[in-house]
Amino acid sequence: MASIYPRPQATEKEKKTVLKKGSWWIKYTVGHEEKRYSLNIKDKKLAELIKKEKEIELSRKIAKLPSTIKTKDFLQEYFKHIKVRKNLDTYKHEESRLSLFVEDCPRKLNEISTGDIHKFLTSIAERKDGGKPRTVNHYLKHIKTFLKYAMECNYVYTDPTKGIKKIKETNDEPRCIENLHQNIHPNKLTQL
Question: Against a cut of 0.85, is the pTM above it?
Answer without folding.
Answer: no
